[in-house]
Here is the input.
Amino acid sequence: MGATSSHRRRTIGALTVLFTALICGGGFASVDAQSTSYLLQMPTLPIAPGDSFALAVEGDWVQSVAGFQLSISYDPLAPIQNVDITVVNSLVGALEPEFIQFNVTPGVIVGGALFELIPPFQGIVLPSVGFPLLLAEITGDTAPDVEEQLVPFSFVDGLGSPPINNSFVVNFESIVPDSFTDGAVDIRHPPGGPLANFVRGDVNSDTFVDLGDAIYHLSYTFGNGALPVCLDAGDANDDGHSDVSDAIFILYFIFIEGPAMNPPFPNPGPDPTPDSIGCEQGIEL
Here is the structure.
């Protein structure tokens, strides 16, 4: 492993400690414990016809996870194109697993990741933080003339050849999740009306993207902090949701040269990918 990769992993480790401390002991309200021990979930993601999408695949666990497997199905005849799966925007990708393999065929997405494959083992794991973390994103796009419809994505064991089951790797053992929430891509026309101007990632609306935005995001996501006047600005990873993955995305961008936000960034403007998140008060140009 090169010096750059080693530095990247040390930085990720430090950010994980910081992130966990902010949530679990840094002054925010306590996080309610999950009713289940291990879970996998996907949201319902609204997009407009002609848009691309990034559907989050999230997981939660009570012990540190050394790897995972995913087995997901969708309608192979659904009007979506260029379907793929990526860990680029997640903590998984930042940790650079020694083994990672995904296969995508029409209607089927299978694969997994293992952070350490051969000795010497350094204890690289996904920590248990008490709430779901982003594992991967299912990506694709739609044609501009596609009809409004719901495209479900479901966790289904036994897909692929050889068959793959949804599971986590904990202490060298496979753990089957005890809760699954399937997701969907909801293709629909956005409501009309003027679009507000904002800078993506600028959660506190000071026109800059910095550590203050990540802290503001964590405060209203898990504590009693006030919602931002432009919730759409908090959708840092542009997946149509304002959640913990956005705070992580901002931290990556600031500290470890992660990918920059999609437009509008770095200059304010309207959201070129309309979604269900509103912006009550934008930035005056």
